Amino acid sequence: MDLTLSPQEEAFRDELRGWLDEHHPGAEPEGDEAGFEFRRSWQKTLHQAGWAGVSWPKEYGGRGASLIEQAIYNEEVTRAKAPAAVNVLGLAMGGPTVIAHGSEEQRKRYLEPILSAEEIWCQGFSEPESGSDLASLKTKAERHGDEWVVTGQKVWTTLAHHAKWCMLVARTDPDAPKHQGLTYFLMDMDQDAVQVRPLAQITGEAEFNELFLEEARIPHANIVGGEGNGWPVAITTLMHERATLAFGLQIQVKIALGELMEKARSTTVNGGSAAEDEIIRDRLAQLYIESEVLRLNAYRGLTHTMKHGVPGPEGSLGKWQWADVNQALTELALDIAGPQALLRSDDWTYRFLRARANSIEGGTTEILKNIVAERVLGLPRLR
Amino acid sequence: MNFDLTDDQRAIQRTAGEFLAARYKPEELRRLALEEERGFTDEQWKAIAELGWPGLVVSEAHGGLGLGIVELVVVQEQLGYALAPTPFLSDVGAALLLEAGGEDETAAEYLPGVATGERRGTVAVWDADAGWSPTHSALVPGGEDGQPTLTGTKVAVADAAAADFIVVSGADGRHFVVDAGASGLEIEATEALDPTRRLYSVSLSETPARELSLAPEARRRAYEALTTALAAESVGVAQRAMEMATEYAKERQQFGRPIGAYQAISHPCAQMLLETEGARSVTLYAAWALDHEPDTSQLAAAMAKSYAGEAGWRVTAAALQVHGGIGFTFEHDLHFFLKRARANLHAFGDSRWHRRRVADLAGV
Ligand SMILES: Cc1cc2nc3c(=O)[nH]c(=O)nc-3n(C[C@H](O)[C@H](O)[C@H](O)COP(=O)(O)OP(=O)(O)OC[C@H]3O[C@@H](n4cnc5c(N)ncnc54)[C@H](O)[C@@H]3O)c2cc1C
What is the predicted pLDDT for the residue at A304? Predict the structure, then answer.
């Protein structure tokens, strides 16, 4: 056991830290559009310096970083309060899926523009009738010569309004058992047959959208992983999504907690500071412990993955636990605010509302518990 | 960065697991808990001494193995898993405090015997009217300078009747060593929540004692190592209770299917895994910090004791619920785990007390 960084890991950290110090673009401008363009240009800067897609192999424009270095990357970027790269779904999910299941030609075509943020990606999995039960999805694709014609509806599609490419899972064989009739496509969003309608969220903003597909066209060459093989490819995407949520965001939780402790010290309740209130202190301490447990589990999981090639049981728990902790943290922020909680006076109101999605997005907590119960503990399936 | 145990640590883990599984089968655990006066036998202690465990945390200079707290928690987790009734942890607590004495004469005199298992110790911490703190005592020594005597009562002292000496805490963080059989020392068995660990009330009446010279830092570390060891025991207890619950959930049928197919059963089982793994991560971290990173070890140990203490309790309580009525019977073994888990939550500062320390140390 050695929980310190190796000299090589330290060098990686110091190099990144120095670079971030020098290139930090400052605060994000107000407004959805301005914010988007700001983050897009930040990702370009990252890419030019080789800091986008650090986990990707070098031959595809990445840095070939080890799992620990990726973790360090997440920590440093978050600690520096650097903006998020704009093409999150492409970087964290689309690219790795193409690297794992795509053809060499697809890798050449798609990977570079993901890194440079020239082409934004979105994920068209969920449908109105198919959420947790993703494999029941109905959007259908029929082959016409070298093309597939796609009709159906997708929903909750984050970033679709900016996206060039959509990771689309559609049913190509209606007669096959539900997990086997699916195919994973890369769909060009630039066509009239694809209509994007923004969906306002409980926060008031519209991060996600509805997609209406009316005979949209996809070239046969845009299938990833082979016709009828869409399920395992989609699972790869989801595994990357959960890993990102669990790992990338545990450090955000720590930073948010630091801010919350500061807020507790500077907020007066019943004549004293909130941080001196016994109950608030106890809850802050509990959150401090849980955020540390989240971090330590993540590192333990990394050690396991590096040694055995696959994540251990700890790995599947991270996204679930992160959602619990982040929700508890943002709830405490409102409790600390006292009557100010009635107002929408600072960023905590937004964070509090946004956190409600944490136990839904990327697989609900209930589904993750099912996975842990069935796959890790070997309990019988419900069906 | 590497969270893995070393090959040597793994070997210790395997040996401990096999040794305990062979010798502390459920019938034996039950027999020791309910029938054996001191809760263990001399042969059992001898076998433990042959493994070198009593000398695990004793430095090589004093004849021990001089191993780290990581090794200690590896053994402790296995002890919790087996729920082996043994005075080991009491003895380790005394050894840790003596070792904290450094050059202290009394420490030098006692430790070689401790290292071989010939001399067993325990720690008496709580005054009869104690608060939460594991180190807060009002006991003030009397007697002449250099020949102190102690008068007062300590409660919930583990394995006192089987100890050759007792390390007694006093006011202002002072600590004293009292020999078994010293004048005015009375040891009385008390009924305990956890029948697998014997507790006694220890009263002292002008009892001669020797003061241990302990630097505050060293004393603090000894208690942190002890609470981290206790946390590791709770991890083992939780692991075992989780395994019992999931096995039962696979076997037990109701309404025509195994109960584990119902999410009201399977989701709490998943929760058990979440908490057990979390407790294991934070306990290993605390142990590592105690060995390698003294600056963060205080905070780490407080987190481990708080989190593992609660995880142990919640996992065993949920496991009982999964078992239904059978889990509530004395005949089933689960209650021994539940009681140990709850007792560990309260011993040496309960979870809330340790959270208060976390708040202070983390700068809340
Ligand atoms: C902010 C946000 C962004 C998103 N972005 C995207 C995106 O970019 N692309 C995309 O494809 N999707 C996206 N999603 C969709 C998300 O993946 C789904 O919402 C999620 O999988 C749940 O599906 P559902 O909403 O249909 O709920 P349902 O599946 O209908 O679930 C409703 C409730 O039933 C429970 N439930 C369902 N099945 C079971 C079961 N077997 N056992 C126990 N409980 C069960 C669920 O846990 C939930 O509590 C996003 C969602 C959010 C909130």
Answer: 83
pLDDT tens profile A138-166: 999 999 999 999 999 999 999 999 999 99
Flag whether residue A81 sits within 8 Å of chain B, measured between CB atoms.
Answer: no
Of the residues B61, B85, B116, the one at which a domain ends: B116
The parent domain of residue A44 ranges over 7-116
Residues of A10-49 as b/e, b for ≥16 C-beta within 10 angstroms? eebbeebeebbeeeeeeeeeeeeeeebebbbebbbbbbee
Ligand 1 and A364: CB distance under 6 A: yes
| Domain-located, residue B1 | no
How far is residue A150's CA from residue A170's CA, in Å, rounded to a whole number? 8
Q: Best mutation site among A136, A351, A361, A381 for ligand 1, i.e. most ligand atoms within 8 A of its Cβ?
A: A361
Q: Is the same domain home to B63 and B156?
A: no
Q: Name residue, tokens 């729920």.
A: B83
CA distance B277 to chain A (A): 7
Q: What's A364's domain CATH number?
A: 1.20.140.10
pLDDT tens digits along A59-113: 999 999 988 898 899 889 988 989 989 999 999 999 999 999 999 999 999 999 9
Tell me, using a 6 A CB cutoff, whether residue A158 lines ligand 1.
yes
Residues B150 and B178: their CA atoms lie apart, in Å, by: 9
Is B90 within 8 Å of B163 (Cβ atoms)?
yes
If asked whether residues B228 and B317 sit together in one domain, one would say yes
Mean pLDDT of A271-284: 95
Asked if the structure places residue B2 within a domain, the reply is: no
Q: Is B2 in Cβ contact with A2 (below 8 Å)?
A: yes
Q: Of B4, B262, B273, which has the smallest distance from its Cβ to A317's Cβ?
A: B273
- Count the domains in chain A: 3
pLDDT, tens digit (0-9, with 9 covering 90-100), for A210-235: 999 999 999 999 999 999 999 999 99
A372 CB burial (10 A radius; 0-12, 13-18, 19+): buried
Kindly state the average pLDDT of the residues A245-259: 84
Query: The pTM is what?
Result: 0.95
- Interface contact flag, B364 A285, Cβ < 8 Å: yes
Structural domain ending residue among the three candidates B116, B141, B158: B116
Question: B41-57: per-residue pLDDT in tens?
Answer: 999 999 999 999 999 99
Provide the domain limits for residue B258. 217-362
